[in-house]
Write a structure and sequence with these properties.
Layout: H1 18-34, E1 66-69, E2 75-77, E3 80-82, H2 87-94, E4 102-107, H3 113-125, E5 130-133, H4 136-139
Parallel strand pairs: 1-4, 4-5
Antiparallel strand pairs: 1-2, 2-3
Length: 142
């Protein structure tokens, strides 16, 4: 072990990286904590139009269930009026015997989004696997 004594006595210009590493570690911890807290939206599907050459299925064998939210926030399941309080139990009854548990929600353009979100919430509360959103383009077959 040698030691320098005297000689070229000038100031050393070494960079102290310890504060830089401390700041980087703090930022890394902050980003690791914040990342899982990002908000997630509703998981939904958009139905795909049938192939152009395929005829539509008969009405009694149609597996599609559509919840319609009208302008006055009234609900219908495949055209049958349903009260908001009964929606979840009606959906449970409909999907008791079905293998595929997929429902689509169609909202009027003038209805508040909260009514559509409540219908999606009730569908998920009924134990349905997937909830889809009906859009005007999908209805038109585009």
């Amino acid at each position: 072990m040698a030691m320098q004594v005297g000689g070229s006595g000038g100031a050393k210009a070494d960079i102290n990286v310890t504060p830089l590493i401390d700041v980087l570690l703090v930022l890394l911890i902050i980003f690791m904590v914040i990342t899982p807290l990002t908000p997630h939206g509703l998981n939904t599907l958009v139905p795909q139009p049938p192939p152009p050459n395929m005829p539509p299925p008969p009405p009694n064998q149609d597996p599609t269930v559509v919840i319609e939210v009208a302008k006055d926030s009234s609900l219908q399941i495949n055209g049958t009026p349903v009260k908001e309080a009964e929606l979840q139990s009606k959906l449970e009854d409909i999907f008791k015997t079905r293998a595929t548990k997929v429902v689509f929600v169609k909202g009027d353009p003038d209805v508040d989004y909260r009514y559509v979100a409540q219908a999606i919430d009730d569908a998920e509360g009924a134990g349905l696997d997937k909830v889809g959103i009906m859009t005007p383009k999908v209805e038109a077959g585009q």
